[in-house]
Specification:
Layout lengths: L5 E8 L2 E6 L2 E7 L1 H10 L5 E5 L11 H10 L4 E4 L5 H10 L3 E4 L1 H5 L2 H10 L4 E9 L5 E5 L4 E2 L4 H11 L3 E6 L11 H10 L4 E4 L5 H9 L5 E4 L1 H4 L14 H7 L6
Parallel strand pairs: 1-4, 1-12, 4-5, 5-6, 6-7, 7-10, 10-11, 11-12
Antiparallel strand pairs: 1-2, 2-3, 7-8, 8-9
Amino acid sequence: MNRIRVIPVLLLKNGGLVKTIKFKKPNYIGDPINAVKIFNEKEVDELVFLDIEATKLHNEPNYKIIEEIASECFMPLAYGGGIKNIDQIKKIFNIGVEKIIINSVGYKNPDLITKAANIFGNQSIVVSVDVKKDFFGKYRCFSNSGKTKVRQNMHDYLKMLENRGAGELILTSIEKEGTFGGYDIDLLKKVSHAVNIPVVANGGAKNIDDFINAVINGGASAVAAGSMFVYKSTNKGVLINYPSQNELIEKLFNKIS
């Protein structure tokens, strides 16, 4: 049995839980602490929290809400949003977070990735990479919540992140995010072949079959989702949910062995 990580990705805005579609139209979901308590009961592998406003507003990470989340969270926790320097990273780790996630600052200041990896270890430094196709149909990386285009081509940028010390990539298809349309398998293939570090598929998952597709055909090392874990269905009635461990074993792990 090949047990991969199945990771809810939760978005924070003004201290509340929201969900976006293609990085737009944030819809309020509820209290993040309540979501954490539910995921604790579901025996979730790992939780990712991303503050989608901190960098845009040039704010520091909201240490108060991070501490509240960490104190309730019984599983490995990763946080990203508003991180600019080593002191902030150290403070977040001291709160009880196991991994930090870097996005925009990794593009502006890749030295921070190297410094953080040297101090805290590669395994705790994750880089979030947001990708969409340009006018010519080529995949391009973006930072700043999908607003700033990375100048380097995707392959060179990803290799740079790996060489700088990133221990893992969370790969999000902007065009798929929040759509329930399945992962961008072609994108996953390109990225998983380009780097030698784990790639977490994110953006578009609707069901467990999408997880299987991401691992077997896309080469993903782990799978992540947002809408699938906060909505009851594509009708988007709010329901914090996660497959049972028996369901994951039967429908996912046994099929990717």
